[in-house]
Amino acid sequence: MNEEDSRKSISSTKVDEGFELFYCNLSYRRKFIRTLWCSPVLLLLVPICSNKVMVFCCILFAIQAIYNYKKWKFEEK
Questions:
Q1: 11: which residues sit within 8 A by CB, 6+ positions away?
Q2: Could you tell me where the DSSP H helices lie in 38-50?
Q3: Helix, strand, coil % over all residues of the chain, rounded to 5
Q4: pTM score, two decimals?
Q5: Residue 35: how many CB atoms within 10 A of its CB?
Q6: By the 8 A CB rule, do 32 and 72 touch?
Q7: Which of 3, 16, 33, 71 could join 28 in a cystine, given CB atoms 3.0 to 4.6 angstroms apart?
Q8: HSE on the CB side for 46, CA within 13 Å?
């Protein structure tokens, strides 16, 4: 089995439509969308958390969004 076939079999088990409770079962496209939908939660943390925690959360959020976007676009090829 070559690399492209193994990628297709792995991605075919991922959920790309409908509801999926578990994040790990989502495709990279759906992970990216869910990450963007969670951005309002990040804004709700502003009055609760300290500045250092907020900076850390924002950096992690940006890294996660960029990673999922790149993997989604790579998976489309």
A1: 27, 75
A2: 39-44
A3: 70, 5, 25
A4: 0.73
A5: 18
A6: yes
A7: 71
A8: 4
Residue count of the chain: 77
Tokens 């900076």 — which residue? 55
Take residue 56 and report the two structure tokens written for it.
């850390």
- Residue pair 72/29 in contact (Cβ under 8 Å)? The answer is yes
For residue 76, give both structure tokens: 């489309």
SS3 of residue 18 by DSSP = coil
Query: Please, what's the b/e burial string for 47-70 (b: 16 or more CB within 10 A of its CB; e: otherwise)?
Result: eeeeeeebeeeeeebeeebeebbe
